[in-house]
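Long-time lurker, first post. I've been practising inverse folding by hand and with some scripts of my own, and I keep getting stuck on stretches where the structure tokens seem ambiguous. Below is the full token string for one chain I'm working on. Before anyone asks, I'm not after the true native sequence, just a reasonable design that respects the backbone. If someone could post their per-position residues I'd love to compare against what I wrote down in my notebook.
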């Protein structure tokens, strides 16, 4: 047994120190970034934010809408080949959509069908998503998928440490998804005791990924989950994240997935974890007997239109840029000085989507 004594931090443990800035207006802050990759020969340009591949936000409906803002939707794993065929009759914007699978045999069979039917080329991103990216078999799966799809931008995760970030990149991932346990619908930390404070995970994994480079590009990371407020998205970029991924902040809107439920005269929308009992029963018909649920089912107060949220999110990120003197998202990390604060004093840890914040 070993104890690591140094303090690890979450988004709520820090604030950003303002810096002298030459920027005149928030409009001067550029939110689009362009990336090249360590393996994939593609170039990508857009706002480096993506939806989680969850049933309530990785939907066709959001993909159509979010691509207009150059945001990426990673589709959930429950669509069928026929549904993809139908969707791509009216959607043609590969840069802003990702196909996601796990590492079960069935997932890889689905990938083969998508390749055979040439549906896979409708996606720039393939997301290999497992709760535990530390399994040896996962690296093997990434290698296989890289061989089958040499041109795609491959996302793989989740992990929270530097050595595993390097391992996944060296085995074929372009972008490593970072986060174990921070998700708002996730109960992994409570059920298993496993996890890592998210801000520190992002700092350590970004450093490892960016250290692997070639003439074409370097390894990249996604800060996945735990953002409860736009300031967390900014803090993740400041910590070195190349992309932010979240589900909760994209949920609860008119346009989000999940049922709308009325209770005591108020409207709510469902938001549930991919490993919740609800997801397992709805999409696989049963809960495996060897598995405990590591996700929860929640109802989020109905938040109106997602368009207003996106404007607020973009406005908030631009404002962070002006406070710290960063003209581009890429500069956030160079300009950032975090100050540690007591959680009680940090008002940014109230949820953005609580009822009181929306009135
Ligand atoms: P959120 O935006 O809700 O804070 O986090 C979204 C992230 O939580 C997802 O991208 C995914 O990594 C993670 N997640 C989603 N569902 C579950 C679940 O049922 N269990 C666990 N452990 N993580 C989940």
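-- Answer (accepted) --
I ran through it position by position. Result:
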């Amino acid at each position: 047994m070993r104890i690591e004594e140094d303090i690890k931090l979450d988004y709520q443990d820090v604030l950003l120190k303002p810096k002298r800035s030459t920027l005149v207006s928030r409009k001067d802050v550029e939110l689009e970034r362009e990336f090249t990759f360590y393996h994939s020969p593609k170039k990508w340009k857009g706002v480096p934010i993506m939806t989680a591949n969850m049933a309530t936000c990785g939907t066709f409906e959001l993909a159509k809408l979010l691509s207009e803002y150059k945001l990426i939707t990673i589709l959930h794993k429950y669509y069928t080949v026929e549904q993809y065929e139908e969707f791509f009759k009216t959607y043609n914007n590969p840069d802003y959509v990702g196909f996601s699978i796990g590492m079960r045999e069935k997932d890889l069979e689905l990938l083969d069908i998508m390749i055979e039917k040439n549906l896979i080329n409708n996606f720039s991103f393939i997301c290999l998503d497992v709760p535990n990216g530390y399994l040896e078999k996962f690296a093997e799966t990434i290698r296989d998928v890289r061989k089958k799809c040499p041109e795609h931008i491959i996302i793989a995760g989740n992990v929270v440490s530097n050595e595993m970030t390097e391992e996944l990149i060296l085995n074929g991932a372009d972008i490593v998804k970072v986060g174990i346990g921070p998700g708002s619908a996730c109960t992994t930390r409570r059920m298993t005791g496993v996890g890592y404070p998210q801000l520190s995970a992002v700092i350590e994994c970004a450093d490892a990924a960016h250290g692997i480079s070639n003439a074409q590009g370097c390894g990249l990371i996604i800060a996945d989950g735990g953002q409860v407020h736009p300031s967390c998205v900014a803090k993740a970029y400041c910590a070195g994240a190349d992309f932010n991924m979240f589900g909760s902040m994209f949920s609860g809107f008119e346009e989000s997935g999940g049922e709308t439920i009325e209770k005591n005269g108020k409207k709510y929308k469902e938001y549930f974890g991919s490993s919740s009992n609800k997801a397992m029963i709805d999409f696989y018909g049963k809960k495996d007997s060897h598995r405990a649920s590591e996700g929860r089912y929640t109802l989020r107060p109905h938040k109106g239109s997602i368009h207003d949220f996106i404007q607020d999110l973009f406005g908030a990120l631009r404002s962070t840029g002006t406070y710290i003197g960063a003209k581009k998202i890429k500069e956030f990390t160079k300009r950032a000085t975090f100050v540690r604060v007591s959680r009680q004093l940090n008002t940014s840890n109230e949820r953005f989507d609580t009822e009181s914040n929306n009135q």
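A couple of notes from the structure itself: The pocket of guanosine-5'-monophosphate is lined by residues 52, 54, 131, 158, 179, 183-186, 188, 224-226, 245-248, 273-276, 294-295 (CB under 6 Å). Residues 130 and 330 are 28 Å apart (CA to CA). Happy to go over any region you disagree with.
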